[in-house]
Design brief:
about 140 residues, mainly beta, Outer Surface Protein A, domain 3, 12-stranded mixed beta sheet, 1 helix, about 10% helix
């Protein structure tokens, strides 16, 4: 009898976790989660704030981030965009202030900063640029 009571208590609590999994019209798994520990091996990943607003979304392939990942402020404004290749930052990345202005734009190559990075003030005014080669700062300009 005790086992039945424990079973009846544990199962509903497991079913009420803040994660839902569905299959979209492309037959890929879509995971919506409010937990940072949730994983989806393949398909679209969506993590939400407790309020229900989207916090971060992107695509997983073989348990790794791929393509464009976008993070949002709780008010819905874009916080950042980063590109991944096989779970590693690779390509353009950008960060935004809460007012929507660009904070910085830069590039990654195999997980390391590479190329020109530009930084802006919250008002949108250019602040400085930095040049990276394979993760190492090679040049800094303030304009």
């Amino acid at each position: 009898m005790k086992q039945l009571i424990v079973f009846l208590i544990v199962i509903p609590s497991l079913l009420s976790c803040a994660t839902s999994t569905t299959t979209d019209d492309t037959n890929e798994t879509v995971v919506e989660s409010s937990s940072k520990d949730n994983k989806v091996p393949n398909g679209e990943f969506i993590q939400k704030y407790p309020s229900g607003a989207v916090q971060i979304k992107g695509e997983m392939r073989n348990d790794k981030r791929v393509g464009l990942w976008t993070a949002y402020y709780e008010n819905g404004g874009k916080q950042s965009e980063s590109t991944y290749q096989n779970g590693v930052l690779h390509g353009r990345t950008a960060s935004f202030y809460t007012n929507g202005q660009v904070r910085y734009i830069g590039y990654f190559l195999g997980g390391k900063k590479d190329g020109k990075w530009e930084f802006y003030s919250e008002s949108g005014k250019f602040d400085k640029s930095e040049m990276y080669v394979k993760g190492k700062l090679s040049e800094k300009n303030k304009e």
